[in-house]
Amino acid sequence: MDIIRAKMNSDEQMCCDFCKVPVFDYHRHCPRCLYDLCLDCCRDIRRSQTNVVRGEYAESKGPVVETNKDSASDRARLEPSAASVNDKLFPQPIDANDIGIRSLFPTWRVNNDGSITCGPHEAGGCGSSKLVLRRIFKINWIGKLVKSSQEMVNGCKAHDLENGCSSCNDSRRLDSIGRHNFGLSKCSDSDGIDGNSVYSSVLENLKYEGIVHFRKHWINGEPVIIRNAFEPSLSSSWDPLSIWRGIQEIMDEKLDENAIVKAVDCSNQSEVHIKLNQFIKGYSDGHKGEDGKLMMLKLKDWPPVSVLEEFLLCQRPEFIVNFPLVDFIHSKWGFLNLAAKLPPDALQSEVGLKLLIAYGRQQQPGKSDSVTNLMVKMGDVVHMLMHRAEMRYLCPKSLQPERPERIANGMAVHVNAHAPVQNLNLDMGEQSPEHTVSKSWSPSVGSSAELLSSSHSEQPKTNGVERSQPGALWDVFRRQDVPMLNKYLASNWEELTNNSQAMLSVKHPIYDQAVYLREHHKRVLKDQYGIEPRTFEQHIGEAVFIPAGCPYQVKNLQSTVQLALDFLSPESLRESARMGQEIRCLPNHHNAKLKMLEVGKIALYAASSAVKEIQKITLDPKFNRDIRFEDQNLTRAVSENLARVTKQRKVSCG
Question: For residues 256-276, b (16+ Cβ closer than 10 Å) or e, as one string?
Fold first, then answer.
């Protein structure tokens, strides 16, 4: 068919005028009012017509039903053919995520000739013209890409990693590399639900071993912790004041310290405005609201992404170089980050670096916590704890933790929170989870300190240095826990939101990010629903990797600065596509829909990039003398070639 190509610039994004999700290629278009309808909505309309013929009119039309059903089914099969690539990559059960267009607009149906009329006026259309098929990509580009991909795959040998890590499944300790004490890389069984553990490794091991062990856990949708990402003493350069001063040095125009910035009040998740210098001061000293109560705030959208990237390149380049797996996940040149394969001007709001600055403190009765509510992301994310600070607000002296002192340069000074301290017993493995404390640091974390059964509780030292106080407490659920989690949230929505007027507006409440699960909530989930999160603490220099589709929540035990990077790995692509179908059914104003990734577009560009890389290698005379598609070393050669290309990319701050 000669399908007309839609006129779009590379930096433009087309969205369906009904469900508001991004359209990456084929769609239906109204020549009269320019209404655009995605193929998923077209299929919903066709399926609703088929269901009507099969059900409602069965009694009145008698034997005619079979004829109508066949013709309607034939027309319904026409629609997916235009999006066959997406359907084959990410098959969806029929009617699993139907918006219910027929119940909203009963008159919006399929015509006798199989065409679909533009949406009624109530849906934003003209209600008269027939919708015609349009495309965005070049003609036959996808067809050629599928053929090339199949040829590549058929000629390569792949390793099956879906069975996970045998050494971790057997609870065996991994040998230390080179007999040095780099810390324990272990995944051991816990006392809770089977597999309730987290693979944790130190950065030196990861650099030495490569990503194979990491991927054996990642492919199964498991969170991963990478420790010792940088020397803890360097974290002093990551406090908010130092960040603000560093940004001042790279900006052509000086920033106003009295500038108004946005923040989130953790007590009710509302947006507030505050002067930047007041927020920075409150990071360590605390900040009172108009009611005189101490506020728990999280800075929002500061610094801007472009400013942050320049700040990192010019002021903190060593942190980017040593960021765990940065060669694979960087938002622009990470060669296993599928989102990095998009054109440079493509719009993707949820991919890239972010700086997350938030207040925090130990839980106190009757006080609000600094938390990130239970949420789930369509892409992968990694959070690295760069800095933490204990809030020194005016609280009774008897409640303040004693801070050890030592002699330095003839003066008595407070011990740096990240420096090695002798005789500190931070081994929490033998203590009751309800009373996990250190000798020099006594505020109780409460039952939320039920740590994971991993190196965090078994190995308090890394490289002979005592570990610092934790900055954040994480709860991470499994992807397979989501149905039960949604069921629990829906059944207890009023209690969880502390609002008797709160109405559950969606059938997937996990996307609302409206609740934080306390200890008694988690006990109910374990006892009555059979699900339990992986719970662990995060320390300075630790990077927490969360796969797409894994619900998680975070509580700040102190004020923290986190460097976060969103990406999309090949292992998470199918889960991301599944979530995209769920998010499509949310209300059009829903925040999750506004941050939706263009998974189909990302997948196509990533496949195209992979094909080009393999073709380049096989056509390179230096390589093709020794390597062919059937050679098992092809993947290694691709990696080496990409590594060489990566080293050639030099970034300067001239």
Answer: eeeeebebbbbbeeeeeebeb
